[in-house]
Specification:
Blueprint lengths: L3 H14 L6 H16 L1 H23 L3 H24 L2 H22 L3 H18 L5 H42 L3 H7 L5 H17 L4 H27 L5 H12 L3 H16 L1 H12 L1
Length: 295
């Protein structure tokens, strides 16, 4: 918040550090989100430009290539800037999360349109890694072929879903920073009230039905995979609200996040199912009524 030089330095330096430690990418995106949310859409766009020039210069000096700057701009900063603009304009976290899901869905559809056989394309991209593992004796060549084939079938949806989750986490961190500076406690309340529109619930149920009819990888399961981070975030919002309504110890949330980290993807799928159910049942309202009755 001190000025463009400081903000550009944070965004550019953390973007370069993310090449070694990926979590720094969230810090980089959060800097873009904070400036856009607090100062305005035009100021956020200017910061994107300045940070891109900074990463391009540093990347050319250190890596002899400006491509890290262009990739970071297109894959991280522009989506986070756009979502921040939506949140600043409409002041709705639910609408912003929905917009992220729509962008992700369009991205998956575009990939399938441009690449008819996505599984073969991913197998080709992953083949160097598979060959290295097989040559080093880390895995059996036939087993590696089967494992990488299974991974390639779901890589399109998983890749886009990971991007959507990264955009939203960077946005949430930026929103949290903004709350710490100007509205302490505001982000916590905003996140606990996160509720996706029912159209996303209908879309999830329709995709589940189509998967049962179609069977196998393709556009439909990839679209569902992209929606899973949205349901996951709503499930976490339910957990935070239930913990607050019932006065549970903070260690309860720590245990939940530990389970998510240890038992991926199964625990994440379970929490996502809670989020999907909450769209229809409103678990938070039921929990609040239960807590009021108990007291």
């Amino acid at each position: 918040m001190r000025g463009y030089p400081q903000a550009s330095l944070v965004a550019a330096a953390s973007a370069l550090l993310s090449l070694l430690l990926p979590p720094f990418g969230l810090v980089s995106g959060a800097a873009i989100a904070l400036v856009t949310l607090r100062r305005g859409v035009r100021e956020g766009a200017l910061l994107c430009l300045l940070a891109t020039l900074g990463v391009g210069l540093l990347g050319t000096l250190a890596l002899r290539s400006p491509w890290p700057a262009i990739g970071t701009l297109l894959i991280l900063w522009l989506p986070v800037w756009g979502l921040s603009a939506v949140l600043r304009t409409f002041r709705s976290l639910s609408l912003t999360v929905t917009a992220a899901g729509v962008i992700g869905g369009l991205g998956v559809a575009l990939i399938h349109l441009l690449v008819p056989d996505t599984e073969a394309a991913w197998m080709e991209l992953l083949s160097p890694l598979r060959e290295v593992l097989a040559e080093d004796g880390a895995v059996d060549p036939q087993a590696a072929e089967a494992v990488f084939g299974a991974v390639a079938r779901w890589m399109t949806g998983a890749f886009v879903a990971a991007l959507v989750l990264q955009w939203l986490l960077a946005l949430f961190i930026g929103r949290w920073w903004q709350a710490l500076l100007y509205n302490p406690g505001g982000f916590g309340q905003e996140f606990r009230e996160l509720r996706l529109h029912r159209i996303l619930g209908i879309a999830g149920l329709a995709l589940l039905l189509l998967i049962g009819l179609i069977r196998g990888p393709g556009l439909v399961p990839d679209l569902l995979v992209v929606l899973l981070p949205l349901y996951l975030l709503q499930g976490l919002a339910v957990a935070h609200q239930v913990r607050r309504a019932r006065g549970l110890h903070a260690g309860w949330l720590f245990g939940l996040y530990a389970l998510l980290a240890v038992f991926l993807p199964h625990a994440a799928l379970l929490v996502a199912c809670v989020g999907l159910v909450d769209i229809w049942v409103d678990l938070r309202a039921r929990s609040a009524r239960g807590a009021g009755t108990a007291s």
